[in-house]
Each structure stands twice: as C-alpha cells, then as structure tokens.
Design goal:
The chain has a domain of 102 residues: Immunoglobulins (Immunoglobulin-like). 11% of the residues lie in helices and 38% in strands. The strands form 2 sheets. The protein has a 4-stranded antiparallel sheet, with no helix packed on it. The radius of gyration is 30 Å and the shape is elongated. The N and C termini lie far apart (121 Å).
C-alpha cells in the first residue's frame, strides 16, 4: 500500500509540474524592438573601377515602446565600414545603417556581413549582409571604318 501511495503522489506531482502554465501578462513588455526592411543588400553586378560608391543602406524601425539604441555595428572585414545613428531612435521612428564596401577595383564575388548590437528585446543581435559581383569592365572596341575605294579621294 505504501508503494502504491508513493507512486500515486509521484505521478500527481509530475503531472502538476508538466501542466503548470506561466502567468499570462496582458501588458505589453516594455522595451525597444528592431525590425529591418531587409537584412540583405545585393549590389548585383558592378564594373571594376567604375566609380561605384559601394554604399549599402539598411533601413529599420523601432516597433517597441522604448527608445532603441544601437550599441555597436561590427563588420566581418576591414574593407567594409559601418555608419549608423548614435542617438536613440524613438518608438515608431526609423533609422538606417550604411555599409561602405571599398574593394571595387578587381573582379570578385562580394559576400560580407556586419553584426548589429542593440538594446532591442526581440533581436539584440542581428547580422546584416551585402552581396554582389565585381566584374571586369569590357574593353571598348572601335568599329572599323569602311572605306569605299571607288569614291572620290575627298570622301576617303
């Protein structure tokens, strides 16, 4: 009988713990939230040494109810420089991060990232990415001039 009682109490305790639900909090959690329009930017194909500025812009909005503060933006490579707003972004306001990619002189594939750190509750760390291809600029070919030898010497 003792074994049965002990087993029953253990079973009762186990099911109580398994079905315990956290208390629902109907009030919205206070804090900043960050939502990017896009976390990726594709340059497409860029000609090498074409004078392209190499700028990629990432827009975001603070969907929370407290000011959003971007604490750091760190790039994966020294060829990419980040620029971002240091002032707090109020709830409902938008902000932007600009990445400047500087290695546009030789043909290659672009695949770089930057890690954004903030006080956002939903995504305190977000990785944004740039991609694209730097291609060789095609050589300019001058068309050959057709000379009509039967025409007068002044037309040649």
């Amino acid at each position: 009988m003792r074994t049965f009682t002990l087993a029953f109490i253990t079973l009762l305790f186990s099911t109580t713990v398994l079905y315990a639900q956290p208390a629902k909090n109907n009030a919205a959690e206070k804090g900043a939230n960050i939502e990017f329009v896009s976390e990726e930017f594709n340059f497409g194909s860029i000609y090498a040494n074409s004078g392209h500025d190499g700028l990629a812009e990432f827009k975001f909005i603070n969907t929370g109810n407290e000011p959003l503060i971007l604490t750091n933006v760190k790039t994966s490579c020294g060829c990419t420089s980040p620029f971002w707003q240091k002032d707090p972004i109020n709830p409902g306001d938008t902000g932007k991060i600009v990445l400047k990619y500087a290695n546009l002189s030789q043909p290659h594939t672009i695949s770089k990232s930057a890690t954004v750190q903030s006080n956002a509750l939903n995504k305190p760390t977000v990785v944004i990415r740039i991609a694209g291809t730097v291609v060789a600029k095609p050589e300019e070919v001058m068309p050959e001039k057709n000379i009509d030898k039967s025409a007068s010497p002044f037309a040649q």
